[in-house]
Amino acid sequence: MSEPPLRAGITGLAAVSALGRGAQTQLAGALAGAAAFGPVRRFDVGGRRTTIAATLPDASTLADELTGVIDEACTGLTRAQRAETPLLLGIHGHPEAGRSETATTAGFARDLAARAGLAGVARIYTCACVSGSTAVADAAAAIRAGRSGRVVVAAGYLVEPDQFALFDAGRALAKDGVARPFSTGRSGLLLGDAVSAVVLEPFATREVLAEVAGWGRAGDAHHVVKPDPEGRGLARAIGDALVRGGIEPGAVGYVNANASGADGDAAEAVALRKALGTARVPVSSTKSVHGHGLEGSGLLELVMTVLAVAAGKLPATAGHLGADPACDLDLILDAPRKATGPYALSVNAAFGGADTAVLVKAS
Amino acid sequence: MNELATATVRDAAPLPGFVMSSFSPLVAAAADECLTARHGSPPAAGEVGERTAIVLVSATGDAAMATHVAHAVDDGARIGPLLFFQAVPNSVAGHVAARWGLRGPVVCLCPTGDPKADGLAHARLLIDDGDADEVLVVLVEQAGAEYAQAVLVS
Into which CATH architecture does domain B3-153 fall? Predict the structure, then answer.
């Protein structure tokens, strides 16, 4: 008889965003529905069309913030245990890239792992908005296959002038200064700080906050930056996550959507309907309160998802003006909703048509 | 792992939609040459394309563009809207995927060791996990003698 597959559990997590510091602060902010957007004071936004983002006023450097969340997520691990735990990191690149010829992304990651007392860097993901979620999928796959023990996945982005300028130049930022995922009248996304870390390890090692029960990764093969309007890649990623999790769509109790307030929200709605069929699963997007954290977004939203189903409280989508027929979903609006089951999906999509879905099961 | 096709390019023609940097043209040229050796002309045949992933490996990402944007921001100069569309390495990976009909995962990595070994290791992970049957690994660097190398593996 073959051994049953190992199960991958999240045993620690931590996050920082404009909602504040600490994991539970993230959930409290999302449940309160108070969006954390405001005028950008971190750098000069003169001449930009949009001057709003979700930034933590006392944020330190990205290296400091990543070190902090890794440290918090690793609470309960001994120094020796940390020293044998590798890091998977999701990041845009070295924060000084473009301004320093000696700043390397690999060096940044190595320094980070050393500061956090980890074994070293196993992999660095630079795949935009699916960086953290792809890392979690890969980590869970390796654990389930028995090829990996405990790992730390961290991902981070702090709103900075270069990406802000690019998104502004591309007219991707919300003209009215409000992120309105899935809403009529939405006019774009808003950037936000997102720095998170999770510890994944095989079950039976330590107390598990949630199981990474399934995952899926797929591609649209449609466009350089636009999502497939038929949602085929994202639907396939969601379907793969459900198959790996061994559940039917009706068992999913919540989806933390990728939706940012951009045109592409409609494509995600198509994908969710395609993948979940007749199951009317409650959907919201926590980007509506913490903004789009780019390389940090997938992991922050996974942390939010785990905390929400663990608490049994599903956050609403802020900024909603009215129904968009193209986004016909069971949207959680106006107030949090009570969770009806332990399973939830965190869904992400990125430039290049990269799609991920991570299925978690609250303990 | 089986190496199905490989190609290395050291210069590339401009790629429509991508400006001011050789990064994306190099990736697209190496991928095209490699995939042409495997499939002839685009797109890749149905089921094979459906289950082909792209893993793009670069230590610096698009260094030329990052430098240009940093200088423009620091100098208060205008930033062209086209640059937004190539802000991340995913973009050109998406171009390759769309051109060839590759619907497997799209992953971009910064190597922690030997770039080819890192890319192939991740290809192995995706294949073993069942999300792809074939993986196009593209290594690209602009520092020094710039190049892109594409390897298609199963």
Answer: 3-Layer(aba) Sandwich (3.40)
